[in-house]
Specification:
The structure is a homodimer. Chain A is of the alpha+beta class. Chain A has a single domain, classed as Roll (Nuclear Transport Factor 2, Chain: A), CATH 3.10.450.50. A 6-stranded mixed beta sheet of chain A has the order 2-1-6-5-4-3, covered by helices on one side. In chain A, strand 1 and strand 2 form a beta hairpin. The longest helix of chain A is centred in the middle third of the chain and has 15 residues. Chain A is globular and about 45 Å long. At the A-B interface, strand 3, strand 4, strand 5 and strand 6 of A face strand 3, strand 4, strand 5 and strand 6 of B.
């Protein structure tokens, strides 16, 4: 049986992978906190501003590597193919409360994106 | 009940966090493959060469964020405090066969380590 936190995490993931940011954001609490590589992101609007450029402009496709969870916590790891980087894996550890994601520890390697940005300069 | 793959992943993790590289490597298959941010690492000796400098010289402490698994796969996410970087989280997705780790998708953000290296130059 799939855990309730994992259901929410996967539904959120599928939505933004499909570039449906409205649906993706509906799984987040208004005061969601995301600890991302570049720092702390607070609130659903800031989260959308963080994710939208990646989801809408850079992402070509994503492939799930692993997904686990219990009642309150889920971890997913997936690979992404993006415009600047052929393989950019990421991992997210989300905490769910009352059916919404309230916290996300979001992990990916910024190095290849920074290298691609330098090449474009 | 803790899954068998997760037991192996956690035992391996605890060993290298405690800087016991011999014990840590005993949980890896001889022909282990690790997909790390900098590329593919093949074989237990190469894996040790990848992990030892981090475990023995850079790591100050580690704290588990999440750990899940089933019979063959486990995912752990943890934060590390290191000499160059105050918070350097990582995630690993390991595949276990016959009691040993045969594959690891190893994920962390190289950007703060690269920035610290540039500051030292």
């Amino acid at each position: 049986m799939i855990s309730s936190a994992l259901q929410i995490a996967l539904a959120h993931h599928r939505a933004w992978i499909d570039k449906d940011l409205d649906l993706a954001m509906s799984y987040l609490a208004d005061d969601v906190v995301c600890e991302a590589p570049a720092g702390r992101i607070e609130g659903v609007e800031a989260y959308r501003a963080f994710l939208a450029p990646f989801a809408e402009r850079l992402l070509i496709r994503a492939e799930m590597i692993a997904a686990f969870g219990d009642e309150t916590t889920a971890v997913i790891m997936y690979d992404t193919e993006t415009v600047p980087v052929a393989s950019a894996p990421a991992a997210e550890c989300v905490t769910v409360r009352d059916g919404r994601i309230v916290h996300n520890r979001f992990l990916f390697d910024r190095a290849p994106f920074e290298a691609a940005a330098r090449r474009r300069q």
